[in-house]
Amino acid sequence: MTHLRHHNTTCAVCGESCRFTIPEAAGSVGSRDLDTRPAEPLRSTIYAWVKRCPSCGYCAPDPGKALEGVADVVKLPRYRWQLDSRKFPKIANTFLCWSIIQEDLGTPAQAAWASLHAAWICDDEGEDVAARVCRTRAADLLRRAWEKGERLASQPGTDEALLADLLRRAGRLREARAVVKKALEQNPQPVIADILRLQARLIAASDRGVHTVAEARRFSRPAPL
Ligand SMILES: [Zn+2]
Question: 95 alpha carbon to ligand 1 midpoint, in Å?
Fold first, then answer.
């Protein structure tokens, strides 16, 4: 069971006093999903990872901390639209607003993570269309990060495995297949290769569902001689 505590802060954008409920630090027991989503109890703490100032709508892991230029981003029409969009669950909007901030401040890798986290919220709420939109956005941001020479993870092939999962679960199967094929040609580490081979099987079966890293290990077979 996760214990909760309260955090009082002052919004760095508008100066409003805010009180947020946050869970105590939690670990996870069990396998991660293919898109890195951790198992419980950490999995369920996602609802507190990004917070929203109830006054001005500034969304951040800590709205008490100002990022340079953020006061302008929260005024953007695009940001205001996202904040109250009815196309997404409310907490997914909070993550997507944080993603817009990261994107606007020039850190697409962080923006990609925030968009993926928004997808997880949509998954939990059974909002499939919204989840696909979030994953498509995360995939686009991930590629933009690569163009800037940034990667989300340092181990070779890890980003590609994540991109394949984003595309598969967004229903972009042909693109996902191409990413898997190219990544396998680079001879990644065995654990990454197992994940990519599972992705290939799922794509072939048009399976857009959630699967775990443990499954990839279970199904792994030695390469034929
Ligand atoms: Zn505020």
Answer: 16
Report the DSSP beta bridge partners of residue 19: 8
**Which residues make Cβ contacts (< 8 Å) with residue 58, sequence separation at least 6?**
11, 12, 13, 14, 52, 70, 74
What pLDDT shows up at residue 3? 74
The pLDDT averaged over each successive group of 10 residues in the chain (225 residues) is 81 96 86 95 92 97 94 97 98 98 96 98 98 98 96 91 98 98 95 96 97 88 53
d(CA 222, CA 126): 37
What does residue 36 show for φ and ψ, rounded to 5 degrees?
80, 0
150 CA distance to ligand 1 middle (Å): 31
